[in-house]
Amino acid sequence: MYLLNVLGNSTIILLVSIDSHLRTPMYFFLGNLSFVDVCYTSSIVPKMLVNIVSNDKTVSLLGCISQLYFFLWFACTECFLLAVMAYDRFVAICNPLHYTVIINQKACFIFVIISWLASALHSLLHSLMASTLTYCGINKVHHFFCDMGPLLQLACSDISINKLLIYTEGGLPVLIPFLIVLYSYIYIISSILKIHSTDGRRKMFSTCSSHLTVVILFYGTIAFMYLRPSSMSSVNYDKVLSVIYTVVAPMLNPFIYTLRNKEVKGAMKKIFVKK
């Protein structure tokens, strides 16, 4: 699955870079999303694979905090990019005449830079707070990577400030993008339903169906992971759900976008014909 992830997302990055027909805002954001997916999974899976085949399953405190930082950084960046892509589809469908004015090259770069920087500051804050805690005892992380919850369970110092930070600022990088996605698709679906032609509705919906599938897969798993009742929580269950949104979802994204996108498939055919 990791190899499929790297190969599939790298292919999309390559296609967006070399094909002139894919040099549009939508594919610019898609290329960034593919790059984030590669980095996102690479911050977790290689260490997990080493732990599977090796007898030495230890990780240093610095290594654990570093993995937490990069995991939070790339996960939050993915949330913001999904929101930006939803806004891009909202403008394209609901305000097509002003699309090139609103979603211009400068705006695209600003959206992407804000997504990366805001996520980096968020992950830096939580990683620094986790690094200031005192860890004692067995220090066995009951997970396949250093997530915030399993790491805080090992702390023997006061974690009330960390919990307060998680419950206040911690949810913003997920909640704000989700609200943007929700707002965008409410107007998108409303605009599509106003179209009288069946072919017109199908064509409009096809332009955002791939992104909507990715959003449901990503946010649906995260919501079920963190918003379900505590009575349904278990260590093994959490691991399975974590595999879905850290490994399976990033692996499926390239297939979702290529299988339902004629322009991406056309760009791939051009490369194979040239070869």
Explain what this protein looks like in three dimensions.
By secondary structure, the protein is mainly α. It has one domain: Up-down Bundle (Rhopdopsin 7-helix transmembrane proteins), CATH 1.20.1070.10. The protein is built from twelve helices and no strands. The mean pLDDT is 86.
Largest sheet: none
* Class inferred from helices and paired strands: mainly alpha
- Rg from C-alpha positions? 20 Å
Proportion of helical residues:
over 70%
CATH topology: Rhopdopsin 7-helix transmembrane proteins
Mean pLDDT: 86
Give the count of structural domains: 1
Morphology: globular
CATH class: Mainly Alpha
Strand content: under 5%
CATH homologous superfamily assignment: Rhodopsin 7-helix transmembrane proteins
Identify low-pLDDT runs. none
The end-to-end span amounts to: 26 Å
Order of helices and strands: HHHHHHHHHHHH
Number of helices, counting only DSSP H or I runs of 4 residues or more: 12
CATH architecture: Up-down Bundle
Record field, number of beta strands? 0
Helices and strands in order:
Blueprint: H1 2-18, H2 25-42, H3 45-53, H4 61-94, H5 99-102, H6 105-131, H7 148-152, H8 160-168, H9 172-193, H10 198-226, H11 235-259, H12 262-274
At a glance:
The protein is an all-alpha fold and 275 residues long. The chain has helices at residues 2-18, 25-42, 45-53, 61-94, 99-102, 105-131, 148-152, 160-168, 172-193, 198-226, 235-259, 262-274.
